[in-house]
Design brief:
There is one protein chain. Helices cover 29% and strands 26% of the residues. It has six helices and 13 strands.
Length: 271
Amino acid sequence: MPLSERQLAAFADKHAWQIPFDTGPRHLAGPGDARHVTHGLAAAGWNTVSDPLSAEIVLRSPDLRLSLQFDPQSATGAWWRLRSEPFAGGPAWYAEFGELVPAEVLAALTDALISAPSQPADPWASVTSAGWHRDSESTARSPDSMCRIERQLRESQELPSWHIETSEPRGEFSGPRIWHAYLDERTPLHLVAPFLTALADPSPLQRGMYERTAHYRAVQKPSPLLPQQVVDAHTNRINSLRTQARSARRQQTKPATNPANTNPAAPAARR
């Protein structure tokens, strides 16, 4: 079922009366509104295939190759699970994200599922430019040292997987985990890069007064944005994703052009 005007109105009703606060750093901002993720996919034609009376939400892409599961009752700490089925030209892959991952950061990845794949960017470039510390070629940590990115290559793997963990500060060692993300070794780099870019982005996320953050060290101050501007930004993003999805569908259904006639010319008649 496509995203309805009623569903967009419900989002607007919540945020139009919620005074926004600039909240950062992003890895401590808290989960925010899950509809940043689900509305974007629904606008692109993903369908709900779960029981509408269940707390669990499962969305599936129009081509049935991708599925996203949101399970707030998960006992593993992975509330979001993204799966790709194997298909011609691409292997199966899997990614999962913890309860307190910011929805806007996850949405940067799911939005990239809708647009045509771009040339893979260096996932570390935006992390480094945002001032994160590169402890080695395969690790980086946030300026407050509470979030760590690690690219792991096991002996049994040909490609590295990505592990992101936000945890309590405890000297030189990490304390209890706050939230995590895992992207397996087959996850395309054009999806890894926007997730890390959005995570390391120093600009704040908007959270309402008294809305849950991931940690007490999150810094909040009144935002210069009006509530309606937060709603308008969401609506504009949804409209943009709809346009991208329509364009991608047109490209997929566009008939191939007939190749130019390459048959050799018939020999001239003999005189």
